[in-house]
């Protein structure tokens, strides 16, 4: 298993994430509607809005998964925040970075993973909108465009919440 790298702006990225005051908050219908739609639209078992904290992944919204967080060092999303485009793993059991990952070898038996980075207007990537399935698959071009649009919608919701909560 290959541990994810650390972004060059990690300290600042985590500070920005924590300043959003979204970590460990209650579920919200606006985010849950997006993950429920993703699960149906992309025909996957699991859809998540994951936020990459300093040592864990915390799920602001989860559809198809009971866990509320996972360790960062075994997470797929911690790899996905290192790039600007969707990280797609068609079959994790055949990918050297993930083939011996505990989440591939055991529950939730990840084969397919696609994570679209949640990049704030400040340029900080705080997490992903991701799709997971126990069966291998690939996204078509149109599906990738939809996933990117939905990830951008999540960012707009997060940034819009912050603007409303900050005194102006």
UniProtKB/TrEMBL annotation:
Pfam families noted in UniProt: GAF (PF01590)
InterPro entries (UniProt xref): GAF, GAF-like_dom_sf
Keyword field: Kinase, Transferase
Record-annotated GAF domain positions: 26-168
Gene Ontology MF terms in the entry: kinase activity
Entry keyword annotation includes rRNA-binding: no
Domain of life, source organism: Bacteria
Name assigned to this protein: Histidine kinase
